[in-house]
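Input structure tokens:
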């Protein structure tokens, strides 16, 4: 099969021919139709996140099962599938409690610890394939359907984690990024008032299109003051920080009002300071959110199948143009998600 191989961190893709994968016991192989391209996998390519090189990256796939190994139940040849990003044990109390991102025996991630979707075929443990709902026209929109499993499901889970309610105000830091823009979309879907915070003013139109009622340009003045002005001094109910640098984390917490919830995910995961008296006096929560459960992927797929939301994929390319596409991702130029069309 053709595959985009990364021989080492911070090197260009090499389009190579490698043997087709064959499934062992408990595994399945899918033909890849499309695979999402975002900052998470660019961090791996650039060497900012550790991974098992040589490596095929990519974890947001639309595919069709072509072979199953011994003992596999629940999926069969011909099934249309997407992939679940984490390689979990399936047996620990967190996995059994439907909290599998917290697995105690995680073997890592697809496209990091094992080969991913930037190839004609992908082999995974069978539980890592999730069947697509029949209503999703995956053949017409493989790129959009592929990115649901992370770009859309991750912000969908944040709505639950932060218990976002209709009528609340949600501020999204890093709103112009691939996850941020889908968080705007989902917060709007949840009937919240949505404030987009970013420094990239060229992405503000897309933020408004995705659902932002207001936009805060973080490069122009104090972010907290701008948010307080927009909320008449009350602060927001929920602040979601996809940048998670010290400065954004501190601004996100300071922008909270009474009973406010701040959620950190993605980004650089740096330390930050919180005023304990505000946490106490206003009963605020500081929360972390880590990827999603498989059932949350299924719920998000259904949301798209019903036509409630639609993934924003703005740059779709063949395998041969992956390097140029990743250069755009590295420079932060892509609006929403990008994807490779493969099969
Ligand atoms: Zn587990």
């Amino acid at each position: 099969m053709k595959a985009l191989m990364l021989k080492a961190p911070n090197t260009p893709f090499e389009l190579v021919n490698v043997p087709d994968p064959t499934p062992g016991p408990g595994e399945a192989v899918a033909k890849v139709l499309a695979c999402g391209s975002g900052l998470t996998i660019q961090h791996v390519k650039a060497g900012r996140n550790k991974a098992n090189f040589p490596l095929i990256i990519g974890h947001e796939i639309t595919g069709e099962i072509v072979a199953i190994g011994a003992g596999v139940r629940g999926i069969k040849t011909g099934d249309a599938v997407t992939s679940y990003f984490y390689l979990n044990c399936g047996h620990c109390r967190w996995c059994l409690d439907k909290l599998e991102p917290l697995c105690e025996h995680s073997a890592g991630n697809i496209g990091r610890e094992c080969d991913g979707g930037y190839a004609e075929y992908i082999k995974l443990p069978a539980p890592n394939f999730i069947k697509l709902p029949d209503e999703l026209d995956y053949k017409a929109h493989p790129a959009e359907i592929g990115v649901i499993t992370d770009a859309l499901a991750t912000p969908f889970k944040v709505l639950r984690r932060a218990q976002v309610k209709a009528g609340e105000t949600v501020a999204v830091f890093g709103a112009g990024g691939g996850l941020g823009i889908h968080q705007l979309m989902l917060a709007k879907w949840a009937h919240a008032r949505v404030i987009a915070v970013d420094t990239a003013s060229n992405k503000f139109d897309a933020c408004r299109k995705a659902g932002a009622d207001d936009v805060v340009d973080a490069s122009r003045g104090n972010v907290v003051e701008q948010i307080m002005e927009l909320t008449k001094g009350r602060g927001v109910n929920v602040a979601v920080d996809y940048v998670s640098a010290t400065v954004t984390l501190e601004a996100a917490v300071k922008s909270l009002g009474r009973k406010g919830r701040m959620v950190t995910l993605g980004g650089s995961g740096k330390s930050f300071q919180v005023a304990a008296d505000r946490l106490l006096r206003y009963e605020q929560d500081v929360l972390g959110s880590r990827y999603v459960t498989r059932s949350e992927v299924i719920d998000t797929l259904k949301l798209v199948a019903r036509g409630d939301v639609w993934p924003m994929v703005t740059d779709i390319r063949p395998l041969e143009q992956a390097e140029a596409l990743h250069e755009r991702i590295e420079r932060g130029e892509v609006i929403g998600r990008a994807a490779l069309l493969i099969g």
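Residues 88-89, 91-92, 94-95, 103-105 surround zinc ion (CB under 6 Å). The longest strand covers residues 27-37.
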